[in-house]
Amino acid sequence: MKKLVLAASVVFIMFSCQNDQKELDSVQSLQSKVSKRSCATQDMLEAQLKADPSLAKKLADMEISTAKAMATGKIVNGVLEIPVVFNVLYRTAAENVSLSQLQSQIDVLNKDFQGTNTDYNSSNPYNSVRGALNVRFVLDQVIRKATTRTVWYSEDEFMKDATNGITATSPTTKLNYWVVSNLRRKSDNGQLLGYGKFPGTTSASLDGIVCGNYCTGTNGLAAAPYNLGRTATHEVGHWMNLRHIWGDANCGSDLVNDTPSHDGPNYGVPAAGIRSSCAGAPLEMFMNYMDYTDDRGMYMFSSGQASRMAATFASTGPRASFR
Question: Is the pTM of this model over 0.70?
Answer without folding.
Answer: yes
